[in-house]
Amino acid sequence: MSVLRTPGGLSLRWRRRSAAVVTGCASATLLLALAAVGGGGDHPMSPADVLRTLTGGGSPAEEFIVGELRLPRLVTALAVGAALALAGAVVQSLLRNPLGSPDVLGLTQGAATGALVVVVLGGGTLTLAGAATAGGLAAGLLIAAVTGRRGLAGARVVLVGIGVAAILTGVNGWLLTRAQLMDAARAVLWLTGSLDGRGWAQALPLLGVLAASTPLLFGYGRALSMTELGDEAAIAAGVPVRRARRALLGAAVLLASVAAAAAGPVSFVALTAPHLARRLTRAPGPNLLASALVGAVLLVAADLVAQRAVEGRQLPVGVVTGVLGGAYLVWLLAAQRRAGRS
Q1: How far is the C-alpha of 91 from the C-alpha of 111, rounded, in Å?
Q2: What global pTM score does this model have?
Q3: E strand residue ranges, the chain
Q4: Which pLDDT tens digit goes with each residue over 291-304?
Q5: What average pLDDT does the segment 303-314 reach?
Q6: Residue among 247, 233, 252, 226 at smallest CA distance from 100
Q7: What is the pLDDT of residue 28?
Q8: Domain count, the chain
Q9: Within a domain: 338
């Protein structure tokens, strides 16, 4: 661990390996971003052309392609990946459970229920994104109400979340059976998780939520790390456990809900990214910055694969994250089982 002392007497501590991982993820994000904006479709562009267009030197056609088609999709992917990873890291740390994530707790299923209500039953002036956000928040409030004030920790929340997810999955299936054919096809594409056609209308609200939530999460960083040691140890260290837990879980639920509203319930990113960040940094604690960058890298890389894996057709990004995330989870469980036997 290294320590930097500023002239004002402030001490900043960081782990060299964590700093290297953050730097590497940031570099990978930049390279993937250039590849994503350059694209491989009808109008491929070199990294130099992309940079020239971003700085105002491109042709009108290039400025339209980059500024209105590809850049909003990239920003949405980056923001969704970071938001899901932050939500997953917070939930896993607070619940002290490696399986804690918005996918498992039913938050994404709640967002899907809100979206399906608009698609199938009609939501009046409520937009699909607004309904999805409201559905995710409602699922979080339902979990909090069932677990009770003293139950927002440990396996109880996970078990209640699994039950809520199962109920909402059944409700979502029923809503799909009530939909018209075209509405059902639209809903299934959204439920898979997709970045196709995403614009600034989806990216900007999520960026706003990230900008508001990130200072809160990092401000409670010490509290989040201490709660991993148990409530008694955290209270002994002067951490306001209940207040911190409510604030952090509220921020995680909001991030997961708005991310689902922007791109649909993209699976496994919230579960996998914090695990990968922890394994890369080998550092205790939630690893918020590393998790956010890993999540952004995962989703942009998955979107690139989704766009280019099948010639002439784009796959929903949720298909790619589901396959890769599921494979990683199976490998992780098998590795832990082998380690337990050795």
Answers
A1: 17
A2: 0.87
A3: 2-5, 11-14
A4: 999 999 999 999 99
A5: 82
A6: 252
A7: 92
A8: 1
A9: no
Residue-wise pLDDT for 240-249, tens only, equals 777 888 888 8
Asked if residue 253 lies in contact with residue 108, where contact means CB atoms within 8 angstroms, the answer is no
User: What CATH number is associated with residue 115?
Assistant: 1.10.3470.10
How far is 298 from 320, CA to CA, in rounded Å? 10
The answer to whether residue 308 sits within a structural domain is yes
3-state SS, residue 2: strand
Which pair of tokens denotes residue 147? 């677990």
Distance separating alpha carbons of residues 74 and 81, to the nearest angstrom = 11
Residue 340 maps to a domain: no
pLDDT reading at 50 higher than 90: no
- The domain in which residue 49 lies consists of 16-332
In the prediction, which pLDDT does 75 show?
A: 94
- Flag whether pLDDT at 122 surpasses 80: no
CB 45 within 8 A of CB 62: yes
Distance of CA 216 to the CA centre of its chain: 17
**Neighbour tally for 330: CB within 10 Å:** 10
Q: How far apart are CA 298 and CA 324, in angstroms?
A: 10
Cβ atoms < 10 Å from Cβ of 41: 12
Q: Find where tokens 């837990």 sit.
A: 245
Residue reference for tokens 């409030």: 141
Q: Residue 8, SS3?
A: coil
